[in-house]
Amino acid sequence: MSQSWWRSFLDLLGVRRPRLASPGPSRHGAAGAVSAARRRPEAEVSVACLPPGEVDLAEGAEYPPAARVALSAEERDEAAALGAACRAAFDVSKLEAHAFPMRASRIVAMLADDEFDLDQLVALTQRDPALSACVLRVANSAASGSLEQIEGLRDAVVRLGARTVAGIAVVLASRHVFDGGASASRGPLREAWNLLWLHSVSSAFAAGDLALERRTANLEHAFLGGMLHDLGKTFALRSLGDAAIVGRRGDELAMPVIASVLELLHVEFGTAAANAWKLPPHVVEACALHHAALAENNLDVRIVRLASGLAAIHLSPHFREGLEDDVRATALSLGMDRFALRATLTGVRGSVRQARAL
Question: What is the CATH number of domain 28-96+187-357?
Answer without folding.
Answer: 1.10.3210
